[in-house]
From TrEMBL:
Residues annotated as domain TonB-dependent receptor plug: 65-177
Family statement: Belongs to the TonB-dependent receptor family.
Keyword Signal: yes
Protein name: TonB-dependent outer membrane receptor
Cellular localisation: Cell outer membrane
Domain TonB-dependent receptor-like beta-barrel, chain residue ranges per copy: 370-940
Gene3D superfamilies referenced in this protein's UniProt entry, alphabetically: TonB-dependent receptor, beta-barrel domain (2.40.170.20), TonB-dependent receptor, plug domain (2.170.130.10)
Any single Gene Ontology cellular-component annotation: cell outer membrane
Length: 975
């Protein structure tokens, strides 16, 4: 069927030209138009056309988006050589790198997931759509989407809008919307294969895809499908950076208070074990280490030492790099299908289907116990592996071994995720004039995840086997086998009969001392299951010519939507009972329903006047009724002002809402570990808002003025959900212009200022904030914060409790700059493109009621001031070549900019310089054969990330850790 929209011209939709070159801005409720054609009877024939452009549900050809729209085309995606779309999106300036493939393994059960974070406001505040409709979430209790499961070969383009879009799309669109436009029709068969690898070692990536489709019923219908398989190898730290052991050392008397050094680490624990002959770890002169053969010797420190933090260079230290993973092993298989059938020229049925299976495997550290974090392993004086000499050295009272149990095996996760999605709908036109367009659909999705945590230490078994004694006949057995009533010194309880019966004794003196039989016995594989489901039913009506005004027709869109979200996580009984080394995570389950009504309109105000070619005012409002939080309302209004054919001004103001998700409401409370500084430490006690108050309260806690925080690892605590949470609210403003000069064909420039204010933000105090609020309280220590911070008899923090609250606020603003220019060049076409974001401010208010308490993050790791992507493409005959450059400005190494400003000489190097990475790609199309071959190089100049800006931590995704990599690919389309 020949389909056409009068007045709409389709062009090559590169980034940022879309708001000027396209005449429609409708999405989610597809836009339609009528085509009038003379029939034999002289009657008009109405035909259906669908155009999808993110930003509004109004489809009036006279309206252009008042919100900035960024577009990533299929050609842009191909030019990157990526096999997973998540790797492409993280390079876009508007998106943060808080949850990439590279740093996805830092949380339990998230390896291999890529979730998008617009404006650094959190993945839970970025709404991801597929063809304008919602997608089921990827993690328990959350609605954030794993974009890695979206088939890269099936994508036509990705459209991104900034700012609150809750009035148009509903909850979660606080910072904006990312809409994946997938193929709806396809004819023929296409094969695609690609393979690539890093020059620094075994990190291969591959992709194979087949797409096929055909028309039927005299071209009234089309059915298409694709099958895509992508995989990548794991990448270990040592495969990329070798033996670069980095450590920060306090350097009193130097220019900087603390500096980075290589060949160092913490001497608090090693793979062979560290112990103290006096029981105190504060003086390294009292410390001994075990050799691999089980003998022992004094701790060696031949370089610098930081006694307070127990760190050193050129010394016996823990080698953490061998457990550091830069990329998880990952493979996915995705089946995607789409179909449509025209019942007649006014009504169409359509469907979309997706099934994805993704497997990921990540490796981390082995189980460990350090003196400062978990108390170490206590060895009784009558332990069968303790020699008389060792007993004498330690005073015959037993001793603590601080040890990284690497010889017990690295802990890891093996995760399998299965996601399905099915959309069934009808679209068309109604009314005698065909001026009402309708779209009605149902959308069902579900995610099933099975996670296995292997080499997970069963704590009772481990400590039962560690407590080895001589049974009186010269045989080494477990104490619980000799005396079932004995209390284990590490657990503080007796050992169960089941464990005692199978107990295997072992020793931990020296790297490799733990026997394989013991490892197989005390290490277990625990399993958890997660199930999420989503059901959405909705319908919309759009009229682009409701009635006429002098400046043009008024447009109206309205609709209803019902959505139900469910989530359930069932954890292994051993884990949730706290019997393993893994965090104790309780089961969680919950659901919510929401019913919504939305209305949107566009009203032309002025037309064909001096300095006003046209001016349109738009507005939208959405009313929502949740069965968890009650009623909410979101709104938006915008103004679009075309001064002439070359210059257009636009502005937008909106109020967005985010309802608490299932995990925040019903996720339960679970064990957590956080690295923190004790505010009563001698180096921290003077840093409070009122140091005198902090000193007085620390003293009231019974801590001396020279108190030293001896916890060098992470602190244990409890964090979790709150069923009484309220919705978050966000205000967004965008103002900008689009310049497409008639005197310079092919050129487009747009500049947009954006500002987002988030209020009532759901947040929990981290452990350090909880401790700070305790001792910075002017009313003394009898407050709820101090009640949630437990300390041992020696004053060290032992446990912190924190739950979610609506307590925080955030503000960020910046400028987006986009430019593109295409022109003829030596018989071919040259295209230039720039996409840049200058963030002007990012401020976090941990307590929205205390605006003077704020943290400036702009310029800190993960919050660069500038982020940009520039590219040039040249096409001539059958050749196609491109060069792209990714840029990120320098950042401070501290976790926030305030820390750097307060003490710029605290850490050396204090800042990481700007980073630039170049990629190239060349392809050749064999005309009339169906063959296309291509190849490329990513990180052409093999740029290294800044020192210590890599690994499985937040912000590490900003930098390329893979190094120079090559890829080759081929496409073949059957003709």
């Amino acid at each position: 069927m020949s389909l056409h929209i009068p007045g709409v011209h389709f062009v090559n939709r590169k980034h940022l030209t879309v708001a000027v070159c396209t005449a429609l801005v409708g999405m989610a409720a597809p836009a339609y138009a009528q085509e009038q054609a003379a029939s034999n009877s002289g009657e008009a024939i109405t035909k259906i056309e669908t155009v999808t452009v993110t930003g509004s549900r109004i489809s009036n050809p006279n309206v252009v988006s008042a919100q900035p729209v960024s577009v990533l085309t299929a050609e842009d995606i191909k030019a990157t050589g990526a096999v997973n779309i998540g790797d492409v999106l993280t390079t876009m300036p508007a998106l943060a790198t808080s949850f990439t493939m590279g740093n996805s393994g830092r949380f339990i059960g998230t390896a291999g997931i890529s979730m998008q974070d617009l404006r650094n406001l959190g993945t839970q505040r970025t709404l991801v759509l597929v063809n304008g409709r919602r997608m089921v979430g990827a993690m328990a209790g959350d609605t954030a989407v794993d974009t890695n499961l979206i088939p890269a070969d099936w994508i036509e383009r990705v459209e991104i809008i900034t700012g609150g879009a809750s009035a148009v799309y509903g909850a979660d669109a606080v910072s904006g919307v990312i809409n994946f436009i997938l193929k709806k029709k396809y004819e023929g068969v296409n094969l695609h294969a690609q393979y690539g690898s890093s020059q620094h070692g075994s990190f291969g990536k591959s992709l194979f895809a087949v797409t096929a489709g055909t028309n039927f019923a005299d071209d009234r219908g089309n059915i298409a499908a694709s099958l895509e398989h992508a995989r990548q190898d794991a990448l270990e730290f040592r495969d990329r950076f070798g033996n670069e052991d980095l450590v920060t050392i306090n350097t009193p008397g130097g220019k900087y208070a603390r500096s980075y050094f290589k060949n160092g680490g913490s001497y608090e624990f090693t793979t062979g074990g560290v112990f103290s002959r006096t029981g105190s770890f504060s003086n390294p002169a009292n410390l001994y280490v075990f050799n691999p053969d089980g003998t022992y010797r004094p701790l060696r420190i031949d370089g610098l030492r930081d006694t307070g933090r127990r760190r050193c260079t050129d010394c016996d230290h823990n080698d953490s790099n061998r457990a550091n993973q830069l990329q998880p092993k990952y493979d996915r298989t995705t089946f995607n299908t789409a179909g449509s059938f025209d019942i007649n020229e006014n009504h169409r049925l359509y469907m979309e289907g997706l099934y994805n299976q993704a497997n990921s495997k990540s490796l981390g550290t082995a189980a460990f116990n350090t003196f400062g974090t978990y108390g170490g392993h206590f060895i009784d004086p009558d332990n069968a592996y303790v020699s008389p000499a060792l007993n004498a050295l330690t005073g015959g009272q037993g001793f603590v071994v601080s040890r990284d149990d690497f010889d017990s095996g690295r802990r890891g996760e093996d995760t399998k995720r299965k996601t399905m999605r099915l959309v069934l709908g009808a679209e068309g036109v109604l009314g005698s004039k065909g001026d009402w367009q309708y779209d009605a659909s149902v959308n069902y999705g579900r995610t099933h995840e099975t996670r296995e945590n292997f080499n997970n230490r069963y704590m009772e078994r481990f400590y039962a086997g560690l407590d080895a004694v001589d049974n009186g006949s010269g045989k080494i057995v477990c104490r619980s086998q000799v005396d079932p009533t004995s209390v284990n010194s590490n657990l503080g309880t007796t050992i169960s009969a089941e464990t005692a019966a199978s107990c295997i004794p072992f020793k931990i003196f020296g790297d490799g001392a733990i026997s394989q039989a013991a490892r197989d016995w005390f290490n277990v594989t625990t399993k958890s299951k997660t199930r999420l489901s989503q059901f959405v039913a909705g319908g919309s009506l759009v009229n682009n010519n409701l009635f006429e005004l002098p400046a043009g027709p008024v447009s109206l869109a309205t609709g209803l939507e019902y959505r139900r979200e469910t989530s359930e996580q069932i954890n292994d009984p051993l884990d949730k009972a706290g019997l393993t080394f893994l965090n104790a995570i309780p089961d969680s389950r919950g659901s919510y329903n929401v019913r919504e009504l939305w209305i949107e309109t566009a009203v032309p105000l002025l037309h064909d006047l001096p300095l006003i070619k046209n001016m349109t005012l738009g507005g939208a409002v959405r009313f929502s009724d949740y069965d968890t939080i009650g009623n909410t309302r979101a709104w938006r209004y915008n103004l679009d002002w075309a001064i002439n054919d070359s210059l257009r001004l636009r502005g937008n103001s909106s109020s967005a809402v985010r309802a608490p998700n299932i995990g925040e409401l019903f996720g339960g409370q679970s064990q957590n570990f956080m690295i923190m500084d004790d505010p009563c430490d001698a180096q921290q006690i003077g840093r409070g808002k009122d140091p005198a108050v902090r000193r007085a309260n620390c003293a009231a806690l019974g801590l001396p003025a020279n108190f030293t925080d001896q916890v060098t690892g992470s602190n244990e605590g409890l964090s979790g959900s709150n069923p009484d949470l309220e919705p978050e609210t966000g205000k967004t403003w965008t103002y900008g212009f689009v310049f497409t000069p008639t005197f310079l064909e092919g050129f487009s420039l747009n500049v947009d200022y954006w500002k987002i204010k988030l209020r009532n933000a759901i947040s929990s105090l981290d452990f350090e904030q909880m401790a700070q609020r305790c001792v910075d309280n002017v009313g003394g220590i009898n407050n709820t914060y101090c009640a949630n911070v437990q300390r041992r008899a020696d004053g060290q923090i032992s446990f912190v409790t924190a739950t979610l609250q609506n307590i925080a606020a955030r503000e960020t603003d910046g400028i987006d700059i986009g430019a593109s220019y295409s022109h003829e060049f030596y018989g071919g076409k040259m295209s230039w493109q720039l996409d840049a974001t200058r963030t002007l401010n990012y401020t976090d208010y941990p307590f929205q009621t205390s605006p003077d308490e704020k943290v400036e993050y702009l310029g800190a790791l993960g919050y660069p001031k500038w982020k940009a992507v520039a590219s040039v493409n040249y096409k001539r005959d059958n050749w196609d070549a491109s060069w792209s450059t990714r840029f990120v400005s320098g950042v401070a190494r501290q976790t926030d900019w305030d820390t750097y400003k307060a003490d710029p000489l605290f850490l050396a190097p204090a800042k990481a310089g700007s980073g630039t990475v170049h990629d190239v790609r060349v392809s050749y199309d064999f005309a009339d054969t169906g063959w296309n071959v291509y190849g490329g190089i990513t990180n052409l100049f093999d740029s290294d990330p800044p020192l210590a800006m890599y690994g499985n931590t937040f912000g590490s995704g900003v930098y390329d850790t893979i190094g120079r990599a090559y890829y080759l690919g081929v496409n073949y389309k059957f003709r």
